[in-house]
TrEMBL record, chain A:
Residues 4-234 form the ABC transporter domain. It holds the Pfam family ABC_tran. It comes from Nonomuraea turkmeniaca. GO terms for cellular component: plasma membrane. This is ATP-binding cassette domain-containing protein. The keyword rRNA-binding does not apply. It is a peripheral membrane protein. One of its GO terms (biological process) is response to antibiotic. Its main location: membrane. Keywords: Antibiotic resistance, ATP-binding, Cell membrane, Membrane, Nucleotide-binding, Translocase, Transport. Gene3D superfamilies: P-loop containing nucleotide triphosphate hydrolases (3.40.50.300).
Automatic annotation (TrEMBL), chain B:
Keywords: Antibiotic resistance, Cell membrane, Membrane, Transmembrane, Transmembrane helix, Transport. The keyword Transmembrane applies. Its main location: membrane. GO terms for biological process: response to antibiotic. It is a multi-pass membrane protein. This is Transport permease protein. One of its GO terms (cellular component) is ATP-binding cassette (ABC) transporter complex. PANTHER family: NODULATION PROTEIN J (PTHR43229). Belongs to the ABC-2 integral membrane protein family. Signal peptide: none annotated. It holds the Pfam family ABC2_membrane. The keyword Membrane applies. It comes from Nonomuraea turkmeniaca.
Length: 320, 280
């Protein structure tokens, strides 16, 4: 059975079509990534799936239950960690967990015990007696996730869980997500970071303007846009046009001129070893007498993925 | 003062510890409507515990109202403040408690924008329990205000002829009406865009409602057109009911009016509140 299935899901706010015919099929037991820029409709889609918003059109089911007609059945199996901490900042961490445990039907002693276990497991035992508003960003995220898994939900929505976190806290969240999934919970993760989706998700849907523009495993998506890209910084901005031509020839790929007048980025699309191709391209620059101050070989950025995907779609449409 | 403190020890998620809490035990059955409401009521109490300053409006404000009006009008209207107090106290109690019901709307409005509301709304619980929880917390605040006013009144020489039973009966009647009336504010709390506008609307409703009533003076001294308005005011009905109960001569007609209007208030504004809550 699918954890989530939507077809033609639509939500409009005034003139804006925040979600515009979204089709998703999310299998159970893994992390499913929803990747898109700000305003792509990720949060709106999650809010509809979590029964917080009613869709204007289309269908959505969670474990076979309709999110509108059987909202209560859906609520019994999901839990949500929103973009902003979904806990009461004026209450202590412990009070928040006890409150939720009680609301989920645990009796008082069981609720206390559950709260204590969770605080311990999330490294918040010492901070449990303090108001959540005194917590650091990473601690807030942890208490939030602890609250979300209080009843070991079958499906967990994580809406941009690492936005605004420092690298260490981000790594912690990633580790937690992996452990949660290993215990059988399906996770729907929205993110703006390709790296995050790549590290955690077994499938990714790229969405833009409320629609899915690409879907597949991280490997499939990356191979469709080029596995990596080479970023180059030149000493002299006047040499950039030459550098652009040399790189385009060497890599046989489009070159992006960045807003910084000495920087360019080229995708490494050809088959074979990426590093080898990149170093060959850099060698050609040296042969052409262009001085390179700095270079790096990295993953394509979300911008590049988007450009590639939308380019790809445009060519397909033109061919059809 | 710094509000953010980093933990001194660095945390790293441990698979075993997390595995323990993730082990799927049997999920307990859903809490009953009552149990969920009481849990939210507990949340309201915790908020009072963490921010006790918010009790200022249910202690200092009623105290000020009672003292101010007793000594301001007492001599002129009834010959002496003590004599006036026998007439004024039930009315000033109604005014103060009905005035503080508006904070319910302000609280709801402050909370609704926060992430925690999303969590509550994704829980498989009786939907109105979140709102009922606020009102249970507020009932405590209304009780404190009533008791403060009664205590001050007794100190100043208020002697209700109905005795303990009469005074308690009057307060219970006031609490029942205030609980019902608060649903008007939960509705505005969900409807308005900011706390300030909730306050604005509340004052616009409450000022004329409490002043144009029989709280301060006998309506028979007012011009005819005003009497029509004053006698129709729900506050007048409530004050007459509370006053008569405290005086040991309960007015069955007015008490029935108060109880029936409470039921109507809950039916109408409770329904509207829940409709807004589900749509938010």
């Amino acid at each position: 059975m699918l954890a989530i299935e939507t077809s033609g899901l639509v939500k409009t706010f005034g003139d804006t079509r925040a979600v515009d015919g979204l089709d998703l099929k999310v299998p159970t037991g893994a992390v499913y990534g929803v990747l898109g820029p700000n305003g792509a409709g990720k949060t709106t889609a999650v809010r509809m799936l979590a029964t917080l918003l009613k869709p204007d059109a289309g269908q959505a089911t969670v474990f076979g239950h309709d999110v509108v007609r059987e909202a209560d059945a859906v609520r019994g199996r999901v839990s949500l960690t929103g973009q902003y901490a979904s806990v009461d900042e004026e209450m202590t961490g412990e009070e928040n967990l006890i409150l939720l445990a009680r609301l989920l039907g645990h009796r008082k002693p069981a609720a206390r015990e559950r709260a204590a276990q969770l605080l311990e497991a999330f490294g918040l035992a010492e901070a449990g007696g303090r108001q959540v508003k005194t917590y650091s960003g990473g601690m807030r995220r942890r208490i939030d996730i602890a609250a979300s898994i209080l009843n070991t939900p079958d499906l967990l929505f994580l809406d941009e869980p690492t936005t605004g976190l420092d690298p260490r806290s981000r790594n912690n969240v990633w580790d937690i997500v992996r452990i949660v999934v290993a215990h059988g919970t399906t996770v729907l993760l929205t993110t703006q970071y390709l790296e995050e989706a790549d590290r955690l998700a077994s499938r990714i849907a790229v969405i833009d303007h409320g629609k899915v523009i690409a879907e597949g495993t991280p490997g499939e998506l990356k191979s469709s846009v080029g596995a990596g890209s080479v970023h180059v910084r030149l000493r002299d901005p006047a040499t950039r046009p030459d550098a652009e031509r040399v790189l385009a020839e060497a890599l046989n790929a489009p070159v992006y001129l960045e807003s910084d007048p000495v920087a360019l980025t080229a995708r490494v699309t050809g088959s074979g070893n990426e590093a080898e191709q990149a170093s060959r391209a850099l060698h050609r620059l040296a042969e052409a007498g262009i001085v390179v101050d700095d270079f790096s070989l990295g993953q394509p950025s979300l911008d590049e993925v988007f450009l590639a995907l939308t380019d790809h779609r445009a060519t397909e449409e033109a061919a059809a | 003062m710094s509000t953010t403190t980093e933990t001194t020890t660095t945390y790293a998620p441990a698979a075993e510890a997390l595995g323990m809490v993730l082990a799927p035990g049997a999920r307990p059955p859903r809490p009953s409507a009552w149990s969920a409401s009481v849990t939210f009521g507990w949340r309201a109490m915790l908020k009072i515990k963490h921010v006790p300053e918010q009790l200022f409006d249910v202690t200092a404000f009623p105290l000020m109202m009672t003292l101010m009006f007793t000594y301001l009008f007492g001599g002129a209207l009834a010959g002496s403040p003590t004599e006036y107090l026998q007439f004024l106290l039930p009315g000033i109690m109604v005014t103060s408690v009905v005035m503080i019901t508006m904070y319910t709307g302000v609280e709801v409005n402050k909370d609704i924008e926060k992430g925690v509301f999303d969590r509550f709304r994704t829980l498989p619980i009786w939907r109105p329990s979140t709102m009922v929880g606020y009102l249970l917390g507020d009932l405590l605040r209304y009780t404190i205000a009533s008791v403060v006013i009664l205590a001050v009144g007794l100190l100043l020489g208020f002697r209700p002829a109905g005795g303990v039973t009469g005074a308690a009966g009057g307060i219970l009647l006031l609490l029942a009406f205030s609980f019902a009336f608060s649903w008007l504010w939960t509705m505005f709390g969900l409807l308005m865009r900011s706390e300030k506008s909730v306050m604005g609307v509340s004052m616009l409703v409450l000022m004329p409602l409490t002043f144009l009533s029989n709280v301060y003076v006998d309506p028979s001294t007012m011009p005819g057109w005003l009497q029509v308005f004053v006698n129709a005011s729900p506050i007048t009905h409530l004050v007459t009911a509370v006053r008569s109960t405290m005086a040991g001569t309960p007015d069955a007609g007015e008490i029935t009016w108060v109880l029936v209007s409470s039921v109507v208030l809950i039916a109408v504004f409770g329904t509207l509140t829940m409709r807004l809550y589900n749509r938010k």
